[in-house]
Amino acid sequence: MADWNMMSTRAAAEYLARRQWPDTTPMQRAIDALRQYGTGPGPYTPVYAIRLLETRRIVSHIRAFIAAGKLTAYDQPDGHETAIDEATIVKLDELRPLLARGFLLDKRYERDVRAYANAWNDEENFERWLIKAHADNEAAPLLFQWFLHDSWTPREALRLLLGLEPDADWFALSDESGDHPRIVSARYLDGSLVCIEGWRNANVVKESIESGAHPEIYNQLQITSLELVRLSSELSGMKRVFESGSHAPRNPPAYYIEWAARKNYVVPWLNWARSEGLLVPVDAEAEVAPAEGTAEILNAAAPIETPSIANAFDGLNQWDAAKWAKNLGDGRAKWLKKARVGKGRKGAAAATWNPVIIALYLKDLGVPWLKLDAVFKKAALKEWRSKWEEQTEEMRD
What we know:
Elements (H helix, E strand, L loop, with lengths): L5 E3 H12 L6 H10 L9 H22 L21 E3 H10 L5 H29 L7 H4 L7 H8 L9 E3 L8 E4 L10 H15 L15 H18 L9 H10 L7 H6 L18 H5 L5 E2 H7 L8 H10 L9 E3 L9 E2 L1 H10 L4 H7 L9 H8 L5
Antiparallel strand pairs: 1-2, 3-4, 5-7, 6-7
């Protein structure tokens, strides 16, 4: 019969730390406790972070108690006294009174715990700097490495088409059907996190699983970002559409780009990748057979800047050109985001758009074909006319 009074040093510290800082601890209380260490939660949730520090502090106490002859250490097989390490066995009923009385640790132990905590500040500050830089930058430098690959798997490709790094800090959960992945944490292709709170949740879950715990968390994790909800939904939809067809297990990057264009998915980095010369003609790729229509999409019409879009759609949806420019610029008309190809930079460059996607949304809103066709006869959109006709051919009566 197991003696629950005897635990390894590490297990005893984790047990007592969890008793002191259970999952139901108010978040603000944990944050206040972390401030006493001069740190924030860093890569973890606040409650988990303070529990880690408390575990480390208790381990330091146990070592100090044993060194001072106040606590007996036992080895695992036979319960004889032994030297100290994290597998050393201690008795909880001997340890608890010592912790309750208080014990002034040697300064080197306190410095160790604080140094461990302070490293989190540097990590969090770096992540926040990347997130801030992402808001003003459309670059996707991680793509350079991915375009060195001759082919991508569908798993890699669908994440990349959404503008996400397929591997680094990617963590997603699936429901019982496996059809609705919930992205807990991900990075954009400039290396920045989609959501720092999601990253913290993912780190806690991964460490819990690695330690042998298997928490039922799909429906328990709180939503940390509407952007993660949106990306999860788009990934689910894109996955269903892709799996409805027949595709090879690996395909060249251009194959997926052409597929996305045919399905009217907006690839957020396409314009940037074109400007960086990443979208080479498919026949220049290393002995990979080109997908049908790939050359056409790689040389497709350039996306249209905001002023030209506003003038082209002037009068439609009861918006004049000025109203179009305003709604394209302030982001309040959420449906327009689906059509945005590139973000603008104030005083530098205007945002760019896919006019076909805008027109398809307007059709759903009841704008007649005749008026939409007239848009693509205007000089600014003439390069998009054939694409518009191709996309709508089967939709017309």
